[in-house]
Amino acid sequence: MGKTPLARLIYKDHRVTEHFDLKAWAYVSDLSDTFMVTKAVFKSFTLQSCDLKEQDMSQLEANLCERLEGKRFLLVLNIASPFIFGGWKALQPHFIKAANGSYVIVTTRNELSASSIKPLCVYYIKPLSDEDSWSLFVNFAFGGQNPSSYPELEDIGRQIMEKCCGSPLALRTVGCLLRLKLQVEEWDAVLDHLKQNLEDFKTAMNNTLTLSYSTLKLSYDHLSAQIK
Question: Where are the domains of the chain?
Fold first, then answer.
């Protein structure tokens, strides 16, 4: 639904940059690995390589605490794993000496993970409305041209839009694929692909992952053999 792009917009906003002494963005694949989490956060704050090994954990922790001491920081943890409580609990002591007003933003698609860290607040990213979905799709699919100039494609396009379920990733991927391909046969083929793949995979994965798989596979299928 676009949680990472939204967090990135916040992270890069000039008002945010001016407000904090330090900013860091850390991608963490598994928050259960305390050493790797701490190392990733430290590297994000220092923008330097870190050669410390797992046996140097105490030194790594001391370095991170020293870096944050007295500083008002913003940390974005972009999480891949849903099991994060242990790693989060291990990180918290490193923030004690930081200045008041420091914040941590955690992105996750797992509601249980979000609640386990006892957040100050939770923001749910909802699907786009039909109006916004159509606007986004048209922007990419027609390359700035007026879609009313192609009435035979509008009905197919709206069916494609509905299959994207308000997902910005899906709408953009499919829109880019169809960009300036203004033949009815090509749009029908994309619609048929979405119908078939969503039906085939909806029982195996949740809706968002199914949609991402279907639209990205569609894009892949249209690549040349060499690029594949």
Answer: 3-116, 130-221
